[in-house]
Amino acid sequence: MHKICAFFKRLFGKDRTIPESLCIPDASTPEPEPELDLDAIEPSSVPVPSVPELEPDLDLFDSDESSCDQVPTILELEADLDRFDSDESCVPGPSSAVPRPKASTSKQHPCFQLEERVKACRMHYKPVTQVWNNIFIGNEETARDRMRMKELGITHILNAAAMKKKLRILLGMPWEQDVKDTVDTGARYYRGMKIRYCGLPTTKTSNISKYFLPAAKFIHKAKKNSENKVFIHCTDGVNYAPTLFLAYLIIHQNMTVEDAIDYLVKVKYIKPDIDFLRQLAILQCGSCAQVTTNS
After folding, report:
1. Which residues form the signal peptide (predicted)?
2. pLDDT tens digits, 46-81
3. Which one of 71, 87, 103 terminates a domain?
C-alpha cells in the first residue's frame, strides 16, 4: 500500500489537492453529506406541516373527548325528558293531550255512552223481531225460510250481508273469504214470491256508513205503501242489520242516535260494533241534515 501511494504521489505530485479531493472526499464526504442534508431536510420538512396539523387534530380529538364527557349529560337529559313525558299526565303537553284525555275521560266519550246504552238492553235473542210498524229484523236462518217469509207477509228484503259482486263470484268460483259472514240468497232465491230484494255487502267493509243512505232509502220507499213489509237481516241479526235500521231512524224518523238506540234496545237484542256506533254518531252530527234535504 505504501508503494502504491508513493507511486501515485510521484505520478500526480504536482496536483496533490486533486487526488485528495477525488479519493477521500468524493468517496466519503460528498455522498453522505447530501444524504444527511436530505434526511435532515425531509424530517424537518415533513413534520413542519404535519406537526401543526397533528397538534390541532389532537386538540380536536381532545375536544371530542370533552364532548364524550358530555354524553352522560345527554343521556341524563334524555332521562329527564322521559321523566317529563311520564309527568305529562299532570302537566298537559302537545303529545300527551291526545292520549291522556281519552284514558281519563273515556266514560264521557260519545261512543262509550252509546255502547253503555246498548249494554242496557235486557231483551233475549230471537231469530226474528218486529221492531217498527211492518219492519222486521232477523237472521240468516229466517231469511232462507221462504215459508216464514210468506207467513210474515214480507214484500221487501234488505240483505245487509250480501256477497260483494266480483268477477270470480259471478263466474261461480268464489273464494272462502268472499263467502265468510255473508248470506248469498239474492233476488233469484225469492223468485215467484213478489219480493223486492236489495243486497248490501256491509260485512266486507269497515266503513258501513256508505250504506246508510241506500238502506234508508230502500226502507223509506217501501214504507210509502202501508201494506208493504220490510225484512232486514244479516247473518245473526244483531250487528249489521240493526245498524242499518238505526240509520233509517236517524235519517227518516228524525231521531237522535241516543233516542234510536234507546228505542231499539227495548224491543230487540242488538250488539252493534262500537265503530258502527261511532259512524252513526257522525251521521247524526254531520250528514243528517244534508241527507234529509236530499230525500
Report:
1. none
2. 444 444 444 444 444 444 444 444 444 444 434 444
3. 87
